[in-house]
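Quick one: structure tokens for this chain, please?
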Amino acid sequence: GKCSDGGSWWIKPSVSGMTKALAAEWIVGRLGRLVGAPVCEVALVEIPQALLPCEFAPGKALVAGTGCASRDIGGTPTEIRATLQHRDDDDNRRRHAGVFAIVDWFYGHDVQWLLDTSDDWKLHSHDHGWYLPPGGQDWTAAELRATVGTPMQTLGDSAGLDTTELDRLADAISAVDD
């Protein structure tokens, strides 16, 4: 969608059962950017009543209210899941280190990335709705607290990650206070 800033954004509306997914999108996107991880820019957006009725996906009606949006990265993106690819292209050795960091920090599930095929396979992490406690988007504050310090599964092969970037990210994450 086009937002009031004139930019193109991918918008997740607040629909039944999705409010915690929107919170995860916002939290991971904002804190990921704070520490310099390769996440897409996120913003909270207001979906006005004037846009209704509207079907945003087959069989899914748009509702007025707050949504979470990710800025379109432009270029020619292709989505990948589960396995990081093109580590030796662009500065993906550094960017992959950032993905390892946020997946571990936020218990990433249903991991998804965009590769910009028009920009040397530059990687962007996006769609963080299933991050936070293991088990998906129906979490409670108590479950969030209970997972603190619990190791997360790895994304697989870490060979070739930028170790200087891993050290920088560890310091940046440690510096984030409550």
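Strands lie at 9-12, 42-47, 55-57, 60-61, 65-71, 77-81, 112-116, 122-126.
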